[in-house]
Amino acid sequence: MIENHIFPHAAHSKHTLPLSSRQTSAAIPRLSGQTRAAAPARAQKAADEFARYLLTRNLADETLRAYTYAVRQYFTYYRDITYPNLKLYKIFLLEHYKPQTINQRIRALNAYLDFKKLYPGHLPMVKIQQKTYLDHMISEADYEYLKRCLLRDERYTYYFLIRFMAATGVRVSEVIQFQAEDIFSGYKDIYSKGNKVRRIYIPQSLRTDTLKWLSFLHKSHGPIFLNRFDSPISPGGIRSQLKTIALSYHMTPEMVHPHAFRHRFAKSFIEKCGDISLLSDLLGHKNLETTRIYLRRSSSEQYEIVNRVVTW
Question: What is the rounded average pLDDT of the residues 1-17?
Fold first, then answer.
């Protein structure tokens, strides 16, 4: 608990993809010359049109940006939507990006096909080998150490940022949505796809300390996590700053990222409560299989257990 002296003031028609000529990749040229010069305008127009559609789907801001980027990228290289072009784009992705990014771009293009009523032609996702352990998860000891360092150095914004993520399990795109009004009420309602509502509860100890901080700031309304320009912090800004903070405290940067604190919440919650169904609801997962990932141990924990158990 924060001591008081810290804060003294305290319906469209369907169209069909032109699939008749399924040429080989080599027969599908990229844009060139005057066509390439017109590509940025065409790509931006397609992305803007798609963005207006996505806004009606209540997607998270990061998802909206990622999806529109994928469409803009596609139309920068290819004049129109054809199955051969889609396959070429997938090959391009496979050569330049990691599987998670590839699947995100493919989901975006498939959503664009649905939006434009272009059937058939959905691109299949790439298969990702599921690990049997968790990587880059901050330990409880490192989490406590980081909190002490931030509190000692009066870096209150990031002190409370990591506490909110670790004590509520929110995503980085969600934590920046917290308003002072939410702290007074003790919870925040997050709206996701399909106008579904997920209630984020603020634990009493965190709420008490945050109220002291807000009193110190003389803040009673509006976003609570601001940058040095008094604008809401962006997810990218948080990721970048956490890396800098980790290095300044001689911690491994790969362990200090926003999702690591969501992992920390899930692991601590399941160890102390054991209710995976409740945890799934709190994390906003659609199914329990996603939540079960957090039941896995880190590779170092697995190694320690094997050494302790296997004595034969």
Answer: 45
- Whether 277 shows a pLDDT value over 60: the answer reads yes
The string over 104-134, giving b where at least 16 C-beta atoms fall within 10 Å of a residue's C-beta and e elsewhere, is: bbbbbbbbbbebbebeebbbeeeeeeeeeeb
At 242, the pLDDT band (50, 70, 90 cuts) reads: very high
- pLDDT for 95 equals 84
Determine the angle formed by the axes of helices 258-272 and 235-248, rounding to 10 degrees: 80
- For the cut 50, the answer to whether the pLDDT of residue 19 exceeds it is no
In sequence order, what are the beta bridge partners of 198?
A: 190
Q: Where are the alpha helices (DSSP H) in the chain?
A: 33-55, 61-77, 83-96, 99-115, 140-152, 156-168, 172-175, 180-185, 204-217, 235-248, 258-272, 276-283, 288-292, 299-309
Q: How far apart are CA 189 and CA 200, in angstroms?
A: 6
Cis peptide before 124 (omega within 30 of 0): no
Alpha-carbon separation of residue 70 from 6, 89, 108, 184 (angstroms): 46, 10, 6, 40
pLDDT at 154: 95
Q: What is the pTM of this model?
A: 0.59
Of 221, 291, 263, the residue nearest 137 (C-alpha) = 263
Structural domains for the chain: 15-119 (1.10.150), 140-309 (1.10.443.10)
CA dihedral 149, 153, 157, 161 (to 10 degrees): 0
Tell me the per-residue pLDDT of 59-113, one tens digit each, with 9 for 90 and over.
Answer: 888 889 999 999 999 999 888 888 888 888 988 898 888 888 999 999 999 999 9
Cα of 147 vs its chain's centroid, Å: 22
The residues that bridge with 223 in the sheet, in sequence order, are 179
**End-to-end Cα separation, the chain, in angstroms:** 46
Residue with tokens 């509860």: 201
Total Cβ atoms within 10 A of residue 161: 24
Spatial distance between the Cα atoms of 129 and 139, rounded to a whole number of angstroms? 24
